[in-house]
Design goal:
- With 177 residues, the protein is of the alpha+beta class.
- It is built from three helices and six strands, in the order H-H-H-E-E-E-E-E-E.
């Protein structure tokens, strides 16, 4: 019985079966290559998404730290104001004790200001400058013609890393044209 089956299969049938198998293998290879390319593309997208996420999280953490520092620096501005007030009320040259107190207050004030400046704090230079409502808060105005100009600083203003933390409280005058 086995011999009869073998006789029925001729060379053409074997060749056709081999061609079909080869075509199937080639189709499978093409499908696998396409699937591989899809997975590679997916992996690249996931990697890019993760990199963008990592950068965004780093930026957000940095922003949170800066906002936290900003709150601390803002609270310390009143300490700077107190030092400035103390320095303006210590008598000049009325004895050795007054001079020692002045020097001590100046040293501590300078040290505090230096630390805050390293953190990005800068004083707003307002005196003699044109009035800028973004950087100055006018509480008094002298009459005159022309553009308003800062003529007196009542309380110093500060920027932290380029952003106005507290505007300078000023008195303005209108300069003559």
């Amino acid at each position: 019985m086995g011999d009869e089956v073998r006789e029925d299969i001729d060379d053409a049938d074997v060749e056709q079966t081999a061609d079909e198998a080869e075509a199937t293998v080639e189709a499978d290879l093409v499908a696998l290559a396409a699937e591989r390319d899809d997975f590679r593309e997916l992996a690249q997208r996931v990697q890019a998404d993760f990199e963008n996420y990592r950068k965004r999280m780093l930026r957000e953490q940095t922003d949170k730290m800066e906002r936290a520092n900003e709150g601390l620096v803002e609270q310390l501005l009143s300490v700077l104001d107190s030092f400035e007030l103390a320095l303006s009320n210590i008598p000049n040259g009325d004895g050795d004790a007054d001079e020692k107190v002045r020097k001590g207050v100046e040293l501590v004030y300078a040290e505090l200001l230096g630390v805050l400046e390293k953190s990005g704090l800068e004083r707003i230079d307002a005196f003699g400058k044109p009035f800028d409502p973004h950087e100055h808060e006018a509480v008094a105005q002298e009459d005159g013609d022309g553009e308003p100009v800062v003529c007196d600083i009542l309380r110093s203003g500060y920027r932290l890393k380029g952003r106005v933390l507290r505007p300078a409280t000023v008195r303005v005058t209108r300069a003559g044209a």
